[in-house]
Amino acid sequence: MSAVMVDVHSVHKSFGPLEVLRGVDLKVRSGEVTVILGPSGSGKSTLLRTINHLEKVNRGWISIDGELIGYRRSGDKLHELKEKEVLKQRTGIGFVFQNFNLFPHLTVLENLIEAPVSALRRPRKEAEETARRLLDRVGLADKSGAYPRQLSGGQQQRVAIARALALEPKVLLFDEPTSALDPELVGEVLDVIKDLAGTGTTMIVVTHEIGFAREVADTVVFMDGGVVVEQGPPSAVLDNPQQERTRAFLSKVL
Ligand code: ADP
Ligand code: MG
Questions:
Q1: Is the CB of residue 35 less than 8 Å from the CB of residue 194?
Q2: Span 170-192, mean pLDDT?
Q3: Which atom of ligand 1 is nearest to the CA of 47?
Q4: Local confidence band at 140 (pLDDT 50, 70, 90 cut-offs)
Q5: Residue nearest to atom 11 of ligand 1 (CA)
Q6: Cα–Cα distance between 143 and 28 in angstroms, integer?
Q7: How far, in Å, are 68, 76, 81, 186 from residue 73 at the CA level?
């Protein structure tokens, strides 16, 4: 078995009086794809956001490739890292959002080279070569000079995926990457993610696409009410769920 890449340990997160994550444990092994399912409001986005420290946790901890995220341990205390150190860690964690979040005033190619050049100090020429290779990989080699508004939603999301890959992340997080797309554009984005899965990219994908989960996931995690209710291979969780809450959810989405 490969090493644990993402380790979420007993994570609690509240917003004021609202406890959104109530002790989440999750391990994702290197090269594996974990798909997170769950009803709206169950804490899926919050969990992803804690993994790259866009949200601080109230209890518990998260490590990626053995390195604590957002904190440094000294003795049995955790101290929060400085913003600069957090930003550095975040470059190793790719995040693909529902609404693409491309820079509207930059071309596709510029969107891809911005972070490698400014955050990783890559030479521009090298960043550009990588960007062109990645655009080719997501089927958009001919769009390097286009602006985001000139692309379809599916194309924009494929650019966003290429942009995340340009930082050579240890793990890629997807938060409902196809939810904002017209139905006929969903497939092209899922195909790109499937392709990445085949090349051993470690990924956590929040989605409602059950067919995708069945086909691509190594592990399916069902969340409800801020906890992991059930997890296992797709054949177990999707076809033979053990928990009533999982069955109730699947009966609504299948
Ligand atoms: P999901 O992605 O599963 O739909 P979220 O993680 O987005 O769920 O949200 C879980 C709960 O946390 C919801 O009740 C949501 O309203 C609440 N929540 C999320 N972010 C914040 C925030 N920044 N401030 C207050 N409440 C929040
Ligand atoms: Mg969400």
A1: no
A2: 97
A3: 6
A4: very high
A5: 41
A6: 34
A7: 8, 7, 10, 42
